[in-house]
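Researcher: Here's my situation. A collaborator sent me these components and asked whether they could plausibly form a single complex. I don't have experimental data yet, so a predicted model of the whole assembly would be a useful starting point for our discussion.
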Amino acid sequence: DGGITQSPKYLFRKEGQNVTLSCEQNLNHDAMYWYRQDPGQGLRLIYYSQIVNDFQKGDIAEGYSVSREKKESFPLTVTSAQKNPTAFYLCASKNSGANVLTFGAGSRLTVL
Amino acid sequence: DAKTTQPPSMDCAEGRAANLPCNHSTISGNEYVYWYRQIHSQGPQYIIHGLKNNETNEMASLIITEDRKSSTLILPHATLRDTAVYYCIVRVNNAGNMLTFGGGTRLMVKP
Protein backbone atom coordinates (compact mmCIF):
# COMPACT_ATOMS: atom_id res chain seq x y z
CA ASP A 1 0.00 0.00 0.00
CA GLY A 2 1.19 3.50 -0.74
CA GLY A 3 1.83 5.85 2.12
CA ILE A 4 4.25 7.73 4.30
CA THR A 5 6.37 6.02 6.90
CA GLN A 6 7.84 7.96 9.79
CA SER A 7 10.34 6.51 12.20
CA PRO A 8 10.88 6.19 15.01
CA LYS A 9 7.41 6.61 16.49
CA TYR A 10 8.81 7.54 19.89
CA LEU A 11 12.28 8.93 20.59
CA PHE A 12 13.96 10.02 23.81
CA ARG A 13 17.17 12.02 23.75
CA LYS A 14 19.33 13.94 26.15
CA GLU A 15 19.68 17.69 25.87
CA GLY A 16 22.41 18.75 23.46
CA GLN A 17 22.15 15.74 21.19
CA ASN A 18 21.20 15.96 17.54
CA VAL A 19 18.47 13.57 16.41
CA THR A 20 17.28 12.63 12.93
CA LEU A 21 13.68 11.73 12.16
CA SER A 22 13.05 9.63 9.08
CA CYS A 23 10.28 10.21 6.53
CA GLU A 24 9.84 7.95 3.50
CA GLN A 25 7.00 7.99 0.95
CA ASN A 26 6.16 5.59 -1.88
CA LEU A 27 3.42 7.75 -3.36
CA ASN A 28 5.70 9.30 -6.00
CA HIS A 29 4.76 12.72 -4.60
CA ASP A 30 6.85 15.71 -5.58
CA ALA A 31 6.50 17.85 -2.46
CA MET A 32 7.27 16.91 1.12
CA TYR A 33 6.73 18.81 4.36
CA TRP A 34 7.69 18.73 8.03
CA TYR A 35 5.36 20.12 10.68
CA ARG A 36 5.72 20.47 14.42
CA GLN A 37 2.78 20.18 16.81
CA ASP A 38 2.81 21.13 20.48
CA PRO A 39 0.09 19.91 22.88
CA GLY A 40 -3.31 21.47 22.15
CA GLN A 41 -1.93 23.53 19.28
CA GLY A 42 -2.21 23.51 15.50
CA LEU A 43 0.57 22.48 13.13
CA ARG A 44 3.49 24.75 12.38
CA LEU A 45 5.59 24.32 9.24
CA ILE A 46 9.30 23.68 9.73
CA TYR A 47 10.62 22.97 6.20
CA TYR A 48 9.23 21.93 2.86
CA SER A 49 10.65 20.65 -0.41
CA GLN A 50 9.00 20.83 -3.80
CA ILE A 51 11.67 18.93 -5.75
CA VAL A 52 14.78 16.86 -5.12
CA ASN A 53 17.83 18.80 -3.91
CA ASP A 54 15.75 21.87 -3.08
CA PHE A 55 13.98 22.91 0.11
CA GLN A 56 12.66 26.05 1.77
CA LYS A 57 12.32 27.21 5.34
CA GLY A 58 8.89 27.32 6.89
CA ASP A 59 7.74 29.41 9.83
CA ILE A 60 9.93 27.80 12.51
CA ALA A 61 13.07 26.48 10.78
CA GLU A 62 15.59 27.65 13.39
CA GLY A 63 17.34 24.71 15.04
CA TYR A 64 16.29 22.23 12.35
CA SER A 65 17.89 20.97 9.15
CA VAL A 66 16.69 18.81 6.26
CA SER A 67 17.92 17.17 3.08
CA ARG A 68 16.15 15.94 -0.06
CA GLU A 69 18.61 13.73 -1.91
CA LYS A 70 15.93 11.33 -3.12
CA LYS A 71 12.33 11.97 -4.13
CA GLU A 72 10.99 9.48 -1.61
CA SER A 73 12.98 10.63 1.42
CA PHE A 74 12.96 13.83 3.48
CA PRO A 75 14.76 13.38 6.82
CA LEU A 76 14.59 16.04 9.53
CA THR A 77 17.46 16.67 11.95
CA VAL A 78 16.64 18.36 15.23
CA THR A 79 19.87 20.01 16.26
CA SER A 80 21.11 21.03 19.68
CA ALA A 81 20.37 24.63 18.66
CA GLN A 82 16.62 23.96 18.87
CA LYS A 83 15.73 25.40 22.28
CA ASN A 84 12.58 23.40 22.96
CA PRO A 85 12.59 20.28 20.78
CA THR A 86 10.09 18.16 22.71
CA ALA A 87 7.09 17.90 20.37
CA PHE A 88 5.11 15.75 17.94
CA TYR A 89 6.62 15.87 14.44
CA LEU A 90 4.57 15.18 11.34
CA CYS A 91 5.78 14.54 7.81
CA ALA A 92 3.48 15.00 4.80
CA SER A 93 3.62 14.84 1.03
CA LYS A 94 1.54 15.86 -1.95
CA ASN A 95 1.66 16.00 -5.70
CA SER A 96 1.68 19.24 -7.60
CA GLY A 97 -1.92 20.28 -8.07
CA ALA A 98 -4.60 20.01 -5.43
CA ASN A 99 -3.58 20.68 -1.85
CA VAL A 100 -4.36 17.16 -0.67
CA LEU A 101 -1.68 16.29 1.82
CA THR A 102 -0.98 12.75 2.95
CA PHE A 103 0.45 12.61 6.46
CA GLY A 104 2.56 10.06 8.26
CA ALA A 105 1.69 8.76 11.71
CA GLY A 106 4.12 11.13 13.41
CA SER A 107 7.19 10.92 15.60
CA ARG A 108 7.04 11.99 19.22
CA LEU A 109 10.35 13.38 20.45
CA THR A 110 11.02 13.87 24.13
CA VAL A 111 14.20 15.58 25.26
CA LEU A 112 15.16 14.74 28.82
CA ASP B 1 -4.04 33.25 1.88
CA ALA B 2 -7.50 33.96 3.22
CA LYS B 3 -7.81 33.68 6.99
CA THR B 4 -10.34 31.28 8.45
CA THR B 5 -12.30 31.40 11.71
CA GLN B 6 -13.67 28.29 13.40
CA PRO B 7 -15.28 27.75 16.81
CA PRO B 8 -12.75 26.18 19.17
CA SER B 9 -15.02 23.33 20.22
CA MET B 10 -18.38 21.66 19.54
CA ASP B 11 -20.34 18.70 20.87
CA CYS B 12 -22.55 16.35 18.89
CA ALA B 13 -24.70 13.39 19.89
CA GLU B 14 -23.79 10.05 18.36
CA GLY B 15 -25.91 9.29 15.30
CA ARG B 16 -26.85 12.92 14.74
CA ALA B 17 -25.45 15.18 12.04
CA ALA B 18 -22.40 17.24 12.99
CA ASN B 19 -22.31 20.65 11.31
CA LEU B 20 -18.94 22.37 11.57
CA PRO B 21 -18.84 26.01 10.44
CA CYS B 22 -15.94 27.95 8.96
CA ASN B 23 -15.82 31.64 8.18
CA HIS B 24 -13.54 32.81 5.36
CA SER B 25 -14.89 36.25 4.51
CA THR B 26 -11.69 37.37 2.72
CA ILE B 27 -11.57 34.40 0.34
CA SER B 28 -10.51 35.25 -3.19
CA GLY B 29 -12.03 33.89 -6.39
CA ASN B 30 -9.42 31.21 -7.03
CA GLU B 31 -9.10 29.90 -3.49
CA TYR B 32 -10.48 26.50 -2.56
CA VAL B 33 -11.86 25.45 0.83
CA TYR B 34 -10.18 22.36 2.27
CA TRP B 35 -11.14 20.33 5.32
CA TYR B 36 -8.86 18.01 7.26
CA ARG B 37 -9.29 16.26 10.60
CA GLN B 38 -6.83 15.02 13.18
CA ILE B 39 -7.69 12.23 15.55
CA HIS B 40 -5.72 12.39 18.76
CA SER B 41 -2.00 11.61 18.33
CA GLN B 42 -2.35 10.79 14.64
CA GLY B 43 -1.47 12.68 11.48
CA PRO B 44 -4.21 14.84 9.92
CA GLN B 45 -6.43 13.23 7.32
CA TYR B 46 -7.83 14.95 4.24
CA ILE B 47 -11.63 14.98 4.14
CA ILE B 48 -12.96 17.09 1.27
CA HIS B 49 -12.45 20.29 -0.68
CA GLY B 50 -14.46 22.56 -2.96
CA LEU B 51 -14.44 25.84 -4.86
CA LYS B 52 -18.03 27.00 -5.34
CA ASN B 53 -20.36 24.06 -5.60
CA ASN B 54 -21.38 21.81 -2.76
CA GLU B 55 -19.37 18.60 -2.62
CA THR B 56 -20.05 15.19 -1.14
CA ASN B 57 -17.92 12.11 -0.68
CA GLU B 58 -18.01 9.01 1.45
CA MET B 59 -16.81 10.89 4.50
CA ALA B 60 -18.70 14.17 4.49
CA SER B 61 -20.51 16.93 2.66
CA LEU B 62 -19.21 20.45 2.12
CA ILE B 63 -21.69 23.29 1.78
CA ILE B 64 -20.25 26.60 0.55
CA THR B 65 -22.43 29.72 0.68
CA GLU B 66 -23.19 31.51 -2.56
CA ASP B 67 -20.95 34.45 -1.64
CA ARG B 68 -18.23 31.92 -0.61
CA LYS B 69 -17.60 33.75 2.64
CA SER B 70 -18.40 30.75 4.78
CA SER B 71 -18.77 27.00 4.57
CA THR B 72 -20.06 24.09 6.63
CA LEU B 73 -18.67 20.59 6.87
CA ILE B 74 -21.40 18.06 7.54
CA LEU B 75 -20.84 14.61 9.00
CA PRO B 76 -24.31 13.13 8.39
CA HIS B 77 -24.31 10.47 11.11
CA ALA B 78 -21.54 11.19 13.59
CA THR B 79 -19.93 8.27 15.39
CA LEU B 80 -17.60 8.21 18.39
CA ARG B 81 -14.71 7.70 15.95
CA ASP B 82 -15.43 11.12 14.44
CA THR B 83 -14.18 12.78 17.64
CA ALA B 84 -11.25 14.83 16.37
CA VAL B 85 -9.96 18.32 15.61
CA TYR B 86 -11.30 19.58 12.29
CA TYR B 87 -9.28 22.11 10.31
CA CYS B 88 -10.69 24.42 7.64
CA ILE B 89 -8.07 25.81 5.24
CA VAL B 90 -8.42 28.16 2.31
CA ARG B 91 -5.79 27.92 -0.38
CA VAL B 92 -5.14 28.42 -4.05
CA ASN B 93 -4.76 25.17 -5.96
CA ASN B 94 -1.43 24.31 -7.55
CA ALA B 95 0.27 26.33 -4.86
CA GLY B 96 3.53 24.49 -4.32
CA ASN B 97 4.12 25.71 -0.86
CA MET B 98 2.74 25.10 2.55
CA LEU B 99 -0.67 24.69 4.05
CA THR B 100 -1.22 26.38 7.39
CA PHE B 101 -3.20 24.51 10.01
CA GLY B 102 -4.62 26.82 12.68
CA GLY B 103 -6.40 25.86 15.87
CA GLY B 104 -9.37 24.10 14.24
CA THR B 105 -12.58 22.92 15.93
CA ARG B 106 -12.40 20.18 18.52
CA LEU B 107 -15.49 18.02 17.88
CA MET B 108 -16.59 15.75 20.70
CA VAL B 109 -19.13 13.10 19.72
CA LYS B 110 -20.99 11.88 22.80
CA PRO B 111 -22.96 8.66 23.27
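Model: Some features of this prediction you could bring to your collaborator: The CA atoms of residues 21 and 72 of chain B lie 4 Å apart. Chain B touches chain A at residues 32, 34, 36, 41-46, 49, 87, 89, 91, 93-104 (CB under 8 Å).
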